[in-house]
Amino acid sequence: MELGLTYGLRRAARLRPYSPAVIDGALTLTWAEFASRVARLAGAFCALGVRKGDRVALLAMNSHRSLECYFAALHAGGVITPINHRLSAGEILAQIEDAEPAILVADRAFETVAIAAQAGGSTPALICCDGPSPSGFLLDYEGIIADSAPIEDSERRGDDLACLFYTGGTTGAPKGVMLSHANIMANTVNFLSHIGTDEDLVHLHCGPLFHVAAGVRLFSVTQAAGLHVVLPRFSAAEAIATIERNSVTIATFVPTMLRALLDLPDIGAAGLPSLRIITYGAAPMPEALLREAMRRLPHVRFIQSYGMTETSPIATMLGWRDHLADDQRNNRLRSAGKPALLAEIAIADQTGMHLPTGGTGEILVRGPMVMLGYWRKPEATQEALRDGWMRTGDVGYLDAEGYLYVVDRLKDVIISGGENVHSQEVENVIASHPAVHQCAVFGRPDPRWGEAVHAVVVPRPGACVSAADIVAHCKASIAGFKCPRSVEIRAEPLPVSGTNKVLKAKLREALLQAETA
Amino acid sequence: MELGLTYGLRRAARLRPYSPAVIDGALTLTWAEFASRVARLAGAFCALGVRKGDRVALLAMNSHRSLECYFAALHAGGVITPINHRLSAGEILAQIEDAEPAILVADRAFETVAIAAQAGGSTPALICCDGPSPSGFLLDYEGIIADSAPIEDSERRGDDLACLFYTGGTTGAPKGVMLSHANIMANTVNFLSHIGTDEDLVHLHCGPLFHVAAGVRLFSVTQAAGLHVVLPRFSAAEAIATIERNSVTIATFVPTMLRALLDLPDIGAAGLPSLRIITYGAAPMPEALLREAMRRLPHVRFIQSYGMTETSPIATMLGWRDHLADDQRNNRLRSAGKPALLAEIAIADQTGMHLPTGGTGEILVRGPMVMLGYWRKPEATQEALRDGWMRTGDVGYLDAEGYLYVVDRLKDVIISGGENVHSQEVENVIASHPAVHQCAVFGRPDPRWGEAVHAVVVPRPGACVSAADIVAHCKASIAGFKCPRSVEIRAEPLPVSGTNKVLKAKLREALLQAETA
């Protein structure tokens, strides 16, 4: 008997009907109330035309409604596809066009883009998530819940598609990662078997739920019948107040969030006594930041996870005992940890051959958490998956005790504040400026964002372009978080390799030397 | 992608090829060695005729070979059926006849019964587990491993049958419980998600591996790539020496074993510092014994599990924090805990209607850990399973926080030293004695065995029978552990209800009053 992702909700509603399930600001929903709203919203989705496998797109800030949409889409037999609202309108429309959802649920703030998506023909039905639609074109979320009868759970499971998460691509074309019920259930097992379920979970969701790690955590916490505490967006002060008010026991932060928390003057005094676990990941954690956090929150267990959207996402975990066992010999704090319960890790050379222990090469991940494939992209899927092994594009090695160390990223990706930025996508945009002759985009270390997008630009002979011109040009077509935070305009040509590839490592090195000089 | 039970072995062999997998006395096998022996033993099983779904019966004391047989049977595509060697020869033969195994692997001590099984026609191939066969009729275990080439894993999974565990029946007819790969994988998830896998497991197997709880624990520890430490049989002194010698971190004891451990004079001094978890179950734990154990081993986390063979077996778990939170208000130490991660619990009245919280009735269990059914017994299966709910035959209630309290057993079962004894089976045997007019068998509280089998016998008018006669009569046809440890011969007829049912509760009460008087 395979289990679907709605099983946890059915179980929690039976186990704890009158206990709180979701706290969102002043609103508290019990498991019975939450399950009832989900079953009625699923009824509305079906009435609006959702059939098995149809997509329900979500373009909204975090709220209890995000959770309801996740579960209602699956309950109705559909697929949830959450969209990054930080993207530009053009990027959002490209994702919606690719996903072809039957329904788009959007906040009022995104009404214009929702109407544009419907006009483009890719989305028949629109629902306004957070109150009456200003234009009146969108259906009212609370109205359709009130008017709908609950329907039976479709009980989709196993290899049935559950979620479509978009990752950036080098060309800017959206790439949907297809995760099945079994994929995400495997992630739940990987996560919960690591942390143990002996303690009740009160989980703070303050990272954007359109990202895989935050999104699928909804299913893990629900399976354990834990309590969801939702913040619309991350703010350090709000996070601390919410942790204290609701006795939150577990939260996930990317390095940028953790930095902001520690920068608040009162965190030391408050101490966050209820908090027992902080999980972190999604970006390389600066070691100094981690050590400071461990020192200032000594009662908190820090747990790292490493993975990617394509692995649902957890592939390895570094446990809290490993954090404490760190020493000069093992350098555990620099490790991404050991394979998750249901995961296998291998290291391959450039020909795909698996290397023995200690060998450095591309990190491969295998197991039931590896995606079904890329949505409508069979070639990209074939390129990424070999004999069930997912090619991460990261470079690393395994030590004799089975710990993974990530040493570099094969794919040219900058991770800034937890968001992936493909250098090539930004380079393509900059190169489209008429005054630009050559450019290179890479990450520079940044205490707040982990990495910040940096561009080096060589103008065409005789042309003149400023850093501000380059940034404005980018902002016109791609998301703000992808735009360079710093631009160097230089006269001399970029250094290239024998095969005429720009030597970014050399540029990065020169930048670091100039900064520390 | 569904996972089979051999996945954990493949994963462990990749992750930790040169780390110890099994310690059995002076012998240590690495994961690579263990996996290689399993693949070759599976090759031998196939050469001897095992096809998909065929049974491999195991009649042996615990050893590294028990582990190998479990995994090799599944690797070969077959089904492992471990047999309780404490049963009488007749009972063992009845189980083998019912299971119709293609192969029987037996210790030399059980050679006679193995040969009888083959003569009966139900077992084509015999393998001698622990050295050369005295008679020469059985194949040599080490010889066939040495002579066989390894084969590829069959990778059976999901609803494929994995294990056939026999439970006693009221009539003495064997009843095989069919557990699938998915059933036992769900148990692994239930177990590991409760205890967490952040710490490496070094697991002592000292209970008989033919019982479901000990048997399926092999798969859980393997999935976590933990280390198996095997004792041929339980002895308190050996258990303590082995825990100390191998730095065992986790062990499972039934109450009888725990009593024996605490009765050793040196346990307090030794302290068993490596031991971090004791799981217990399979029989009601006397509260005084548990409190003493918690007091004398304060660094050990005690975890209770409740369930039955038909639920693979874990249905609920009482965590170590719950043990410490026990007080007069909640009586947590008397609870069987909360539903396991993938389990649902309901309470039903006599008509099968589910009762609200607090109502007392039959305990039902639902989830992916519930058996496929009874082997070749569709009526018994239909009787036990209703809409996916397993009827446990136990009576209990759920409190408002979701904790289960077991108050009585509907089925007339005595649990003595971790073994289930069906009263009716023993009554049938006693009633077949020519001098017996009436009899009743029930459990009496026993500090060592938890419960001890007690019989009350009324002789036929004019006939004369002694307690010793009754015990000897039982020993001739059923296992020693089922035979009465005490017999009361009484002249007056047994008290009966209006429907002529013997009132055992009245007899038990009278016995307790007489003993405490």
Textual characterization of the structure:
Two copies of one chain form a homodimer. With 517 residues, chain A is α/β, with parallel strands linked by helices. The first copy, chain A, folds into three domains: 7-181, Rossmann fold (3-Layer(aba) Sandwich), CATH 3.40.50; 301-409, Roll (Luciferase, domain 3); 413-516, ANL, C-terminal domain (GMP Synthetase, Chain A, domain 3), CATH 3.30.300.30. The first copy, chain A, is 33% helix and 26% strand. In chain A, strands 2-1-11-10-12-13-14-15-16 form a nine-stranded mixed sheet, with helices on both faces. A five-stranded parallel sheet of chain A has the order 4-3-5-6-7, with helices on both faces. In chain A, strands 17, 18, 20, 21 and 22 form a five-stranded antiparallel sheet that branches. In chain A, strand 1 and strand 2 form a beta hairpin. The longest helix of chain A is centred in the N-terminal third of the chain and has 17 residues, at 31-47. Chain A is globular and about 70 Å long.
**Oligomer type:** homodimer
CATH topology of the largest domain in chain A: Rossmann fold
The main sheet of chain A orders its strands as: 2-1-11-10-12-13-14-15-16
Number of domains as seen in the coordinates of chain A: 3
Number of strands of chain A: 27
Radius of gyration of chain A: 23 Å
Q: What composes the largest sheet of chain A?
A: 9 strands, mixed
